[in-house]
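In the laboratory, one determines a bound structure by crystallizing the protein with its ligand and collecting diffraction data. In a computational setting the workflow is compressed into a single prediction: the sequence and the ligand go in, and a structural description comes out. We illustrate the idea with zinc ion.
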Amino acid sequence: MSRPRLLIVGIDGATWKLMRPWIEDGSLPTLADLVRRGSSGQLLSVPNMHSPAAWTSFMTGTNPGKHGIFFFSERAPGSYQLRPINGGRREGKTMWRLLSDGGFRVGVLNVPMTYPAESLGEGFMIAGMDAPRATSARFTHPETLAVEIEQHVRRGVLQTGLISGAIGTDIVRGRYAQAGKTLVERVNLRTAVCDYLLRTRPTDVFAVVYTETDGAQHFFWRFVDPSHPDYRPGEAVRYGAVIRDVYRAIDRGVAGMMARHKPDAVLIVSDHGFGPAFGPQGSMQFLQLLLEALGFMVPLHEGLTENAAPARRSGLHRRVLRQILSAAPWVLPQNMRTLLRRVPGVRAVRRSAGYRLDWARSRAFCAGCPGEVFVNLRGREPEGCVEPGVEYERVREEIIAALGRCRDADGRPIIAEIRRREELYHGPHADKAGDLFVRLVDRAITSVSLDGKVIEIPRRLLGRRRVRSGFHRPEGIFILAGAGIQQGAALEGLRLYDVAPTVLYYLGLPIPAALDGRVALEAFAASFTAARPPSYVDDRQEGGPEVVYSLEEAGAVEERLRDLGYL
Ligand SMILES: [Zn+2]
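The predicted complex, in structure-token form:
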């Protein structure tokens, strides 16, 4: 095995919770076979469980504090404004670069946060969901590859991998069957592209990420999980098969790719797991609502807690919207405001990000990545009001204590965990993360009280759970099977950071010492590891070229994030 061949398939959001039963009942024969003859286990995601951070950690082997990508957007330096980002912001080499430099022919398709596509020598790359669209310049490398695929496979076959607005619209309008059909079709289109690439461009390492599982689980979770408050047996009969059908289409895709590529080993990973969303889970608005009710965020005019009141809700939003759009909202960049004017039903977007704070009195705020809380720190924020040092620490402690005292209708805590930034991330970009990261309990929350005071949750937040009924969890999946791999081993304690070093090790390349992960030696046969101790190199990290979106491209990216419910 001089230059082993490896097939890597990413399944966004794949979880053993769903896969195990389907492996056992024969629904996923290819994945079942890989589990049987390989090593497998849980793969712990990055702390914030968001796909951009997670897939970047997967391909760099570093924590987001080092690679610098935490979410689809980040705040512009010295500003409260968000801007969408792409893979060009990444610091550190991807394993694709290391493998290509190490003499492997590498092909990469639709891994999130790979735009602009890297040049991989004899290999190729087709970027992911951070590309403005599949027709964008630098979506593929070489650039001619896009036209070639469209000509030979089918027009419009290339996708960025982000779930399209059409699916979101179908879900909102209750056309679940149509949305489910589209999701499976998209899996099959991606498989068709893989098939074409594997036929025409020989590679040693071929990697593809299927993102339809993430969308399917966000939208269809309540049809497979009786613990979800909106589970209805009748609907479960009608739509309960959609997620499984998406996994089955991927399972068939893996079988086809294995037949074409004839890999020595196959690696299957997910970037995070999945579970039910009971409403506010993963919603930035809910955290904003709590911080406002607790007095940490102080709105200038009408706040979230006020406009949640039924008497003030009706008929108000058009006027307020116009007011907000004309009043330079603190997180909405100009291009997004322009976009919002054209979008019907913008109320949710406006409420999530478009209202203004009294910065002199707001000690904390939320921006960008759901779950994160920033302290309004003097010297760091444009209108910071909290002094660094003792006061900063005190504000963090107060927020932790106040959120910790919040109770649900049954008197139980609503917060599963709150972590300080430095407990989660390290490296030159760690300061991009929120000062706190908050995770809610895995239960339905219908009301919140603090020290006897009731905080009303707007119905629109609870209503979201019908649209987006599933949300990310930390526990993803890892399967490695093939030559040199242990048979049937159950792996424990693997983290996403371990994937890149493990791949480099398997392919016989040295591992950069700066990586945060370890080689999962326990996945390999004793005879394999005995002959090959891992080797390490001191490899300086380097950044890629940053590509700044045009106004129109940024609008396109943001529109799709809105469809997903992220903005
Ligand atoms: Zn994901």
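The pocket of zinc ion is lined by residues 12-13, 51, 54, 214, 271-272 (CB under 6 Å). Keep in mind that any predicted model is a hypothesis to be tested, not a measurement.
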